[in-house]
Amino acid sequence: MQFTVFQNERNQSRERDHTATKSKDRERGRDGELPLTASQTAARDRAIQQKRREIDEVYYQECEMFGLVAKMLIAKDSSLERPIQSSLQENLRDIGKRCVEAMERFIEDYDSRELLH
Questions:
Q1: Residue 60 near residue 6, CB atoms below 8 Å
Q2: Basic and acidic residues bias: where (predicted)?
Q3: N or C: which end of the chain has fewer CB within 10 A?
Q4: Per-residue pLDDT tens for 89-114?
Q5: Tell me, what DSSP letter sits at residue 36?
């Protein structure tokens, strides 16, 4: 059983984070708000990257745990490999979606806090 899902999800996670950051910057400009200063933009980028690292770490730990449990179950009963594989992939996708949602919420919260200052 191969767990190539981890690397694919990792790359997709980074692409989504980068895309979300760009789209938020475009929205800010379209809404007619004052543009961010260079230092505000740099601070925002640092905060987003730090949060991404934290979320990535949790994501990979959960993926590893799920993968390990699946391997252990399959080691005990090899007939479980096919049914477990599709369930495992679905669960890993769900975990990835939750991580993306957490990142989006963080960015929204960060941006709304910055508007108040």
A1: yes
A2: 11-33
A3: C
A4: 999 999 999 999 999 999 999 999 87
A5: P
User: How far from 28 is each of 36, 37, 81, 95, CA to CA, in Å?
Assistant: 9, 13, 48, 29
Owner of token pair 């963080």: 106
DSSP string, 63-85: HHHHHHHHHHHHHH-GGGHHHHH
The encoded tokens of residue 85 equal: 């594989």
Cβ atoms within 10 Å of 67's Cβ, excluding its own: 16
Question: What are 73's two structure tokens?
Answer: 């179950």
Half-sphere exposure in the Cβ direction for 33 (13 Å, CA):
16
Q: How far is 29 from 24, CA to CA, in rounded Å?
A: 9
